[in-house]
Amino acid sequence: MYSAHDYDDAETWPSGNGQTPVSRVCVAVTHAGGSAAKPDSRAGENTRVRTAEGLLEARQLLLAVAGNLQGGSPLIGWARELADLHATLFTASVSTTRRPADFDAPTTSGRINTVIGLIDEWSACHLPRPTSGRRHTHSLGEVISHVADTYTHVQWTLRHTKSAEHQHHAALRFAQVQEGYADLVEEIRALRVALPLGRGHQPVP
């Protein structure tokens, strides 16, 4: 389970050549459908730190990956897409008869990475990064992708497994993942943890 408490004193993703400044990341978020704050606006920065507006609560994320939440934060659509993509990969791995005729694993995996990147770009513009907070080892995109992946596995188990024990363990596993995400959201809003910006999206000094 991804919980902020599990990753104390961890380092952020290492940066390399070709780093993307936060200002350019914010432009990308705007084009992707988010409403980015201006990096050089102190008023916008203060608001972002206080509210982390658009960050989904655990219940909202569950509704999003299940396709039962509309509008608002762009995270809603990205979370749902990740759930669909993970479901496609999982279904193809367990049943060749259910595999779509045009299924392409590398393309599907590549799209998952792309969506994770979009979420990380949004995170870079909208979430606080307290200098004194603990460093989480996973970006927001990776955490949401993990929640979506776990959700698809649980749904498959509940629908295709008659074992009450297996169903119980699957439901318990998702409850643990959801609890870990809820803890992370609380830590972000309390300015006790900073998420990595994602590979290749570290701010220039």
Q: If you had to describe this structure to a student in words, what would you say it looks like?
A:
It is a single chain. The chain is mostly helical and 205 residues long. Helix content is 58%, strand content 2%. The protein has helices at residues 22-32, 42-51, 58-65, 74-94, 105-126, 140-160, 164-189, and strands spanning 134-135, 193-194. The protein has a two-stranded parallel sheet with strand order 1-2. The model is unreliable at 1-25, 27-50 and 200-205 (pLDDT under 50).
Largest sheet descriptor: 2 strands, parallel
> Helix content range of the residues, please?
55-70%
Strand content: under 5%
Low-confidence stretches: 1-25, 27-50, 200-205
User: Within the largest sheet, what's the order of strands?
Assistant: 1-2
The best one-word shape is globular
Overall mean pLDDT: 76
Rg: 18 Å
Features:
single chain, 205 residues, mainly alpha, two-stranded parallel sheet, 2 strands, disordered C terminus
Question: Could you give the topology of this structure?
Answer:
Elements: H1 22-32, H2 42-51, H3 58-65, H4 74-94, H5 105-126, E1 134-135, H6 140-160, H7 164-189, E2 193-194
Parallel strand pairs: 1-2
